[in-house]
Structures are given as C-alpha cells and as structure tokens.
Amino acid sequence: MKTLRLVLSPFIVLVVVFGFFRFSFFSNLEHKAQDSLFRLRGPKNVSGEVVIVAINKESENAFQVYPYPREYHAKLIENLNQAGARLIVFDVLFIDESGDPQADSLLAETAAKYGNVIFAGEINYFKDSGITQKKPPTTVIENLKIPWGIANKSLDRDNFIRRYTLYENYDETPYYSLGVSALLNGLDAKDEYQKTIVHKEKQFEIGPYKIPLYQKNRALINYYGPANTFRHIPYSQVLDDLETVLPGMEGAELGEYYDLLDAGVFKDKIVLVGASLESLHDLFFTPFDTRYTAGVEIHANFIEMVRMGDYLDAINYLFYLILLWIVLILLWYAFKSLKPQIGAAVLILICAAIYLVAYQLFSRAYLMIPIVQGIASIIIVYSICLVSHYLQTQKEKRFIRHTFQQYMAPELVNQLLNNPQSLKYGGSLQEITVLFSDIRSFTTYSENHSPEDTVLILKEYLTEMVNIILRNHGILDKFVGDEVMALFGTPVPMDNHAQLACKTALEMRESLNKLQEKWSAEGRESFEIGIGVNTGTAVVGNLGSEQIFDYTAIGDTINLGARLEAINKEYPTKKKIIISEFTLEKLGDQAEVRYIDEVKVKGKNKAVKIYELIDLR
Fold it and tell me: What is the pLDDT of residue 327?
C-alpha cells in the first residue's frame, strides 16, 4: 500500500499540474520562463546572407505617402536585381488591385522577368463563423504564376510570436508561408530535383532542409536576437538612384543606392521587404521582448535558422512527463525522509538545477524543455510532504502528550515533544535509575478494612507518591497493586538520574511519615513501605504490543531494583530505603549511607553490595 501511494501520489500531482498548465495564466508563465533562456544566452551572430529592406521612418519621410505606388515596387525589384540579389521576398500584401492596371501589370511583369521574386498572401480562418478565406496576390500576379507565400503569424495567448506557421490548408490544399516559399525557391538550379516539400509526422522537409515540427504545421523559431539583429536598409535608399525622384527628397541628389551597389550589400543575398513602422501594425513581441520586432524580421529569423541548421526543437512531451514522474517519486521519498529545513534546501537546489539543465539543453542542443511545469510539480510535492510532516508531527505530539502526561512531569513532556526521537519504538539500551516502592503486608491490611477504606487510603497514598515522582522528573512506569515502579533518566536523558531517584525516595519517606501522623490523628490504621533503588543499563522503550503502547524497562537492572525493595523486610533500616553499590557509585560523595551486606540476585553469581540511604548531602 505504501509503495502504491509512493507511485500514485506524484502521478496525481503530475496530472493536476498538467491540467493547470492548459490555462492561459500558467502556460504564459511557462513561455516567460523559456523566453528568459533567449535573453540569458544573448544574441547569436547571423550569417549576413539575409538582408531586410525596411519601410521605416526614413522611407516614410522620403515617400510621404503609403501605400507606395506599385511602380516603386517594380523599380525596387529592378534595383535589387542590378545589385545582385539572389531572392526578393515581399512581406507586403498585394491582394487588391491598386486602381492603376498599368502599375499592377508593371509590378507583375517585372517580377516575372527576373523570376526571383516571392509575393505575400493570406489564409484567414474566422473562428466565429468557421469560414476559411484565401487572399492570394492580385490576379495579374497569379496569372503569371509568380510564387507567393502566406504571411500569417502564429500568436501565442500572450500575443508573443514563438512559433512559425509553415503552411495553412485551404480546400485540403496546403499553402506555404513566405519563409518556406523563400527556402524552396532559393535552392540552386542544380538542386532542382530537390525542390520538393515532404510532410512527415515529426518533420517538415524542404529539399535538403529537415525542420522539426512543434505542432502539426508550426515550428519553433530560434531567434537570433532582438529587433534589428538583421541588417535593415531603408526602402528609400534602394530607390535613390539617378532615375527616381522621391517626393521627400526632391532637389537632393544623394544617390545612396550606388553606395549600396558598390558595397555589394545585396550581392547573392536573400532580401526581405517589409514594414517596421509602428503605424503599419506589423510589429510583434518575441522572446527578446525589450522592444517590438517587425514581422518581416520574424520571417528573416526563420529563414536564417533553417539555412544555418540551428533548429529549435521541443523535448518529447510524453518522455518528459515520464521522466518528471520518476523524479517526483524520488523526491517524494526524499522529502518524506528529510527534515523540512533540509528538504527546502534540496527543493531550491533542484529548482535551480532544472533551470540550469533547461538552459544547457537550449544553448547547446537547441532543445526546449518545460521549466515552470517541472518546478511547480516539485514545489507541490514538497508542500504536500511538508503538510504531511506537520500533521504527522502533530499526531506524534498528541500521542506523546496523551501517553505520558498521566505519569510524567509536564516539563519532561514538553522536552519530549521538542525531541520526540528520544522516544524509540522497540526499545534501546539506556542507563537509568529505577525505584520500587511497596506497602508492607498490604494484603493483611486489605483484609482488615472495608474495600471503601482501603481504596481511599491507597488513593491518598499513591497520589502523594506520584506527585513526588513527577516533581523530581521521574516517570511513573506502572502500579502493580500497591507497588509503585518509577524510572529516572528516560525518555529524556538526564545525568543526575541517580540523585533524583534517591531524592524521590527520601521525600516519599518523609511524606509517608506525615501521612502516618495524619491517619493516626484521624483514628485510621497506617502502614509501612519499603523502597529499593538501583542504577544500570536496561532495555527501555515501547515494549508493549501492536494494540497497546507500554513504555517500560526490562533487564537485570530492573530485577535488582525490585529485589532491593523486597529485602527491606530482611534488614532493619531506619528509613526503609536500600540502594545498590551501582547507585552509590553514581552518587559519589553526595550520599550519606550505611553499608548493609552483599546479596546475590537470582541468575547472577556475583554478589552486589547494598546500602541503607540515610540522606543526601
């Protein structure tokens, strides 16, 4: 049953945590933790093979109009090809006619002329109506069979972009994204036979590129850095040649295009064209979230990742859950066994280790694993074990208090509650002092008195004796009829247990003298007692059964103590208190005694010296 609970309890925790992380709040926490890995790693160097032509503030000032006339886009294609661009990818939508058929045709024909241009379209799914809508580039572009890709972005619940949409289905036909179209069309002519796309369960293949799938049509983006990690060239600079006069640059002959041409900025490059203006609403949050990143740069990150083979993959989730389950089982056992303070230290170390392992896998193996989910599971397991430990401690304290408060001094009970490990089940060998006290000829006394009188006088006597035992930090082991057995030095160890036992014996004698005077004054017959005290090692602990707890002591030390009490009948002593040589040895010069004799205990060959205890100095 214990083993089953050890296995099932962490599993239940795992299921609960898994359920919680289906909600936005918790899944966003996980995303934020994984985002921190990017910032901790910092930006990665890019190859420089992907360049962005940005519709930015400078271009806005130069054109003083948006959207730009399509003749400008045609001119951009011309200039980029003259500068040696390998591929031109527009993250600009041309899905509607501009109202100028001649300009629309010019753009389409220029793109067809060079055969290295990819336009953008959209596949939109409207959740409310369940309608999927395809928005390709204009008819004239489609008629010329110019390739195009969808510019759809995959937003997480917190509006961050961490995944890249590879394709969307429309009428059971896949339409590929700008990045996929760029990679496919960017393959060399000699690799024409490789210009194929293959869908697999865990992998999406574009010719030689094998992209691990995170979801059925999405891949994780291994971002190279925050906004402007890739080189941005203002759109207006590419058009700033001797043939083009921009409205905002009229009269200024800068010729910045020729500087770009001479520097070979676009030579054999993949050039992405897109907006980075906030007013055009194509800016998004990424794991490097210190500022917005332009949508066109998200495409650039994906293309660079695939070309460089820096694929970011996620750990197999089922494997992760099984591994986490095993870890939780081990930690469940550990937290149950350890003290809460040590468990808390282990908890902190394990949580730090999870983050460190996640970072190492991310930065070295490009493998993403859940962070918060694992940490949350471990914290819950620790919390359950902590509560369980607290409840168990309270149960033990209630048990100890209930068990011992009837025959142990309150301060000893409190010490025992603070140090319950001193109470060992099954018994342990301890040095103690035992005291036996018995009423002489009590059977005869009982026969000569009514049961009521006998019970009343016995109650008065035992109450006084027990008070003395408890006051001197002894524990009442048991009553055997009229006999009292008390232990000193257990369950809380005390160095002066022999002194306390002897002090108890003397006080018991003194108290009995007072009781005898009282009973005599009341006309009641009194009785005499004998006391024996012995010191030594004994087996002490719970020596009862499974049903009944019995904290007691057994062994030769106890037998000798009982024998000393009994032989009071054989030797005339003033106070009727006999102690062994072992108790006297423990007392040292603190005791005033009188040597009596040497006696043999049943089962022992060696005689034991016994003494009458007269007083304590």
Answer: 94
